[in-house]
Every structure is written in C-alpha cells, then in structure tokens.
Amino acid sequence: MDFELSKSQKEIKKAAWEFARGKFDKEMIIEQAKAQTLPRTILKEAGKLGFLGIHFDEAYEGGGMGLFENILLCETFCRKDSTLGSALMFSGYAAECILRFGARELAEKFLPAIAGGRMISTGAFLEPDQGYDLSGLQTDCREENDEWVINGIKSFVPFGALADCYIVLCLTDPGASPKNGKFSMLLVESNREGIHVQPCAEKLGGRMVPFARVQFDHVRVPFSNLIGTNGMGYVQLNRFLIENRIQIAAMALGTAMGAFDRALAHAREREQFGKKLAGFQITRHKLAEMTAEIESCRYLTYYAANRFDAGKATSRDASTAKLMATRCAMAVAGEAIQLLGGYGYMTEYEVEHFYRDAKHAEIFQGSPGIQKNLIADEVIGRLKQ
After folding, report:
1. Could you tell me the CATH number of the domain that includes residue 99?
2. How far apart are CA 293 and CA 328, in angstroms?
3. Which residues are within 8 A (CB) of 209 and not within 5 positions of it... i.e. 6 or more apart?
4. In whole angstroms, what is the distance from residue 182 CA to residue 61 CA?
5. For 361, which of 170, 197, 202, 252 could close a Cys bridge (C-beta 3.0–4.6 Å)?
6. Contact indicator for 256, 292 with CB cutoff of 8 Å
7. Are residues 355 and 248 in the same domain?
8. Is residue 284 part of a domain?
9. How many domains does the chain have?
10. pLDDT tens-digit readout, 54-98
11. Looking at 223-322, which runs of residues are DSSP E strands?
12. Cα distance between residue 179 and residue 176, in whole Å
C-alpha cells in the first residue's frame, strides 16, 4: 500500500511544522512542564488555525478531514516537542465520542469550542483499583425528575482539573444482560455542582497533561447530555479506544522522530578523537537501526489510520500500532540518550523528556501487556473459561 502524501496532506504537515517552530519555545516548555500546566494561549492559536479539530465535521468548525490528517498533526507536533505536542492534541480528548455518537444538538454546543481551543474536554473512564477492566465500574447514574444523577469516583482523568467538560462512563442499568449493556456515556460540564477534583501527584512524563481524581457527588445533568444510546456506553468506548490508540501511536512516532533528530544533530556536530561521532561505524549503525524502526512504525501507524478512515479498523490494528510505535519511541529515545552521553541526561538537551514522554505514551490507554491481550483476542479468539 502506497502512503505517498497528497499535496494537501503535505501542506498540513508543513503548516504544523512552521507553527511548532514558531510557538514551541524550549524554555517555556520546560517551565510549563515543571508546573504541569498547558499554555492556553498556544492552545487557542492552534485552534484558530484548525489544527485541533481537523478530523471534526465542518458543521462543527472542524476541518472535515479524517483520522489520517489528524495523526499527521500528532506526529509533527510531537516531533518538535513531545510534551507540548501531545498536550495540544489531547486537549480534545474523548471529544470524538461526542462527534461519533452524540446528538447533533450536543455536538453543535461543544465541538466548535473544543476545535477552536476555547474548551478542553476529557474522558473520565477509569476508577480506583479497577485498572483497565471497565466491566466492573461502579460510578452510578440514575434517572430522577427528568435528569441524570451521577455518583462515583473517576481516577487518572487527563486534564481533570483543567477540563471544561467530562465524558463519563456510568453504570445506568446494573441488571442489564449482556453485562456490557449496563453502561452509558454522559457529558458533564465541569462547573456543575457536586464535582470535586483532587489533582494527582507529579508524574514521570506527559507533564502538560496532568491527571486528577474526580468525584461526582449527586451531580445532575439533563437527559440531553446522554451521548449516543442508553446502554451502549461500553461499546462506544471501545470504538473510541480504537481511534485514540492510533492517535497515541502517531504521538509516539513523533516522539521517536524528535529524539532521533537530536541524536543525529549531536552525532554530526560532536567530535571525539579528532573525528565526528557520525563517522564511527557503531554510531552509524545505531542511527540506521533507529531509522529502520521509525520507518517501520510509520507505515504501521499510517496503515491503521487509513483503515480507520475506510471504516475497517479493528482493535487489533490499533493495538498493534500502539504497541509497536510506543516500543519504538522507548527504544529510540533511550538510544538517543546513550548517543548524547551525559548531555542526554540533562533537561536543556530535551532528549530526556522525550524518553519520559515515550513511557507516558506506552502506558496510557493500556500498557504493552494489555495491547497484547487485545491482539491475542482477535488472533486466537476469546477462550471460554
């Protein structure tokens, strides 16, 4: 399959790279990452230029393009800087649930602001001590006087303290059969009464996407805030995860490329024993292996995104792309640190935070072990216990 980019796709990558070169200031990123905050000014500028909602429908002020164009942006931004790049692309996290499954009225109300960088969305899916086994979620949602009333706790919520709205997976029908029919998705504005947010402790990577614990204490939302069909939340979430894992694969790909760029520049400039590092065979072979890994994962990620836009992507496609792309990012960023030596360990040379962000991408939306389980489920089939 030929993934030669079209003229418009090349222009998208060029525009994204020029924006990143002009706005991604290294010193600002270091300071913002330490504070675990997202620069809202840059977020709004990215939104005005159409980078954040490129895969949203034009009716919602989006670009009317596909996931493929979206991953080109993910890759390009994260190549310039993995921390700010991933934060910008995650600022609309889970908004795809509104786009793909929500009523038009709900989409018209929220998606233009998310696409424009004026609003941050996030998904509140995980719960304490549950891990990624979502079948046992306890956040309860009941009908009462033409409203939904939500009670429960969500953990590891990206942008939990900064988000303007949450997409929440709730238990709406405990007795439903099959069990997957117990859950529904609701949109909850963050300014509703009864929401209590507790920021999580500092984390290793992805520091501009701070996590938080969010408690819903008799939070009331109107019936119209239901996303999709009642009882279809679990199915909708799994469909969203296919799309999101491909996005994460693209972020990991860009992270690997960013680390490689810095390693290559260092190898070309640094001299030892009167010779450029790039002149030593061991360095040349390391750079060649890094290149081969990056190109392999690029085609795998592009393939998954192309399949998604064609309506054919499976969990296997997404998990394979995420597994291999994040593995590549970890390996390339680690090798980049080795090539830079002591400099690779220092914050000002950037490679160390590419490494930390690679680990963030590897774990987020399921560790390698979870991705292998998902792949095995499709390859082998689910075995009866």
Report:
1. 1.10.540.10
2. 6
3. 38, 86, 87, 90, 158, 159, 360
4. 34
5. 252
6. no
7. yes
8. yes
9. 3
10. 999 999 999 999 999 999 999 999 999 999 999 999 999 999 999
11. 226-227, 271-272, 275-276
12. 6
356: tokens are: 């930390």
Owner of token pair 């719960």:
127
Are residue 179 and residue 278 in the same domain, yes or no?
Answer: no
> At which residue do the structure tokens 């529904």 appear?
184
Query: 323-352 pLDDT, tens per residue?
Result: 999 999 999 999 999 998 888 888 888 899
What kind and span of H or E run contains 74? helix 67-80
SS3 129: coil
3-class DSSP assignment, residue 287: helix
Q: How deeply is 254 buried, as exposed, middle or buried, from its count of CB atoms within 10 A (0-12, 13-18, 19+)?
A: buried
Tokens read off for 327 = 């593995």
Q: What angle do CA 39, 209, 371 make, to 5 degrees?
A: 145
The CATH number given to whatever domain includes residue 192 is 2.40.110.10
**Is 1 inside any structural domain?**
no
Instruction: Answer whether residue 2 is part of any domain.
Output: no
Residue 385 lies in a domain: no
Q: What angle do CA 347, 52, 243 make, to 5 degrees?
A: 90
Spatial neighbors of 2 by CB under 8 A, at least 6 apart, are none
175 and 223 belong to one structural domain: yes
Chain-centre distance for alpha carbon 260: 21
Whether residues 169 and 202 share a domain: the answer is yes
The token duo for 146 is 């033409």
Which of 115, 130, 150 represents a domain boundary (last residue)? 115
For 140-192, the pLDDT digits (tens) are 999 998 899 999 999 999 999 999 999 999 999 988 877 678 999 999 999 99
Query: Which is nearest to 140 in space by CA: 177, 111, 168, 112?
Result: 168
**Same domain, yes or no: 66 and 193:** no
82: domain range?
Answer: 7-115
Give 7-60 as a DSSP string.
HHHHHHHHHHHHHHHHH--HHHHHHHHHHT---HHHHHHHHHTT-TTTTS-GGG
Identify the pLDDT of residue 277: 85
Q: Reduced to 3 states, what is the DSSP secondary structure of residue 92?
A: strand
Contact 35, 13 (CB under 8 A): no
